[in-house]
Structure formats: structure tokens, C-alpha cells
Amino acid sequence: MKNYAITIARGFGSGGRELSFKLAEELGINSYENRILTLAAHYSGLEEQEFVEVNEKLRGGYIGVQLHKLQAHLAPRPQVEVFTSDDRLFEIQAGIIRRLVAEESCIIVGKCADYVLKDYDNVLSIYIEAPRPFCRARVMNRLGVSAEEADHLITTTDKYRAEYYRYYTGGNHWDNPVNYDLVLNNGRLGDEKCISIIKNALKVKLGVEA
């Protein structure tokens, strides 16, 4: 069977990142999020000739090796700065995502991956959300902040993600359910039921026995 990918977009505090790592472990594949951006940022900073040389290497099974050298961060990473675009960085990141999916089955969290891979027939796209009280409690617990601070982080991070998605997808809305195959409320379902539903969707859409 050819490789498949699961893309996961998520509201901040909904538990989508943690769910992705649990799902990856059960499926025996890798989950990528911050490492893709870290690698893309490194390549983006190279001089043009250096970048051309690295870009050629990326075509030969090089991506997975490089990503695995980077540390995966499991803790939530809020965005408090104002969104500013970086088209070169995004294009490099999108190239990494496409080449990664050509190399292996994997889960990709965020990064407009559902949009980048929208024309692929081997992709299952998921959006994870949860009510504010659920997200607030989760952020408070994971980051050790007050309820007010948690609310601020949720608002600013979700705003950043929405603007990021809108800019790089040409005006699409990040939380529009028609962008995804599944929209799941982790506050109602919990990680295990969400994972069970995703596994069933893998079988129904892609024929993957999980």
C-alpha cells in the first residue's frame, strides 16, 4: 500500500497536538509539527546557492533523516506575536511536507497541511476543537498559568492561526468544516474516542487497516 498522511488542524488547548502523538504511536508512524517549521526556517536562512544544493538533497530521501535529528516539543506552544507573512519560508515548508508524504506515512499537525495536500488522494484531513472551558483548563494545567492568562493565550494563538491560514490559502477560513474530512470535538469525545473515529475514517476513506 502506498503512503498515507493524516493532517490535523486544531484549536489551541483542544489537545490536538497530544492526540496526534498518541495516534501516531498506535499507527506506528511519525507525527510532525514544530520540527517542520524548524527545518524550513533553517533552509530559509541559507544563501541562494546553498539552498539550491540542499533543495536537491531533499529529493533523495533526506527529509525524514533531518527531521528526526530535531527535538519534538510536546508542550503547547502559544503564539502571542502578530502574524507576519514569510512566503519563502512557507514555500520551503510546503515542499518539505510534500516530500515527506512521498517518503513515509505520517501525521502532520498544522502548517496548512490540509491545504498543501488538498489534491492528494492519500490524505485524511482532521480538525480538532473543544469548548473554551475545556481548552482553558488544559492550557492552565499544561503551562501553569491563570485562567485569564490561558484565555489570552487561546485567543491570540487562534487568531494567529486563523490569519496564517487565511493568508497562505488565499482567503480560506481555518475553522471552516468543508476544508476537512472530519471535525471532532475533543471536549465531548476525548482522545481515545477521537482516535477510534480517525482510525475508522482511515479505513473508510483510504482503506488503511489500523
Strand content: 5-15%
Shape category: globular
Structural class: alpha/beta
Q: How are the strands of the largest sheet arranged?
A: 2-3-1-4-5
Number of strands: 5
Radius of gyration: 17 Å
Largest sheet: 5 strands, parallel
Listing every helix as H and every strand as E from the N terminus to the C terminus, the arrangement reads EHEHHHHEHEHHEH
**Unreliable parts:** none
Q: Given the structure, what is the number of helices?
A: 9
Q: How far apart lie the N and C ends?
A: 13 Å
The pLDDT mean sits at: 84
Overall helicity: 40-55%
Fold and architecture overview:
With 210 residues, the chain is an alpha/beta fold. It is built from 9 helices and 5 strands, in the order E-H-E-H-H-H-H-E-H-E-H-H-E-H. It has a 5-stranded parallel sheet, with helices on both faces. Helix 1 packs across helix 9 and helix 2 packs across helix 5. The mean pLDDT is 84.
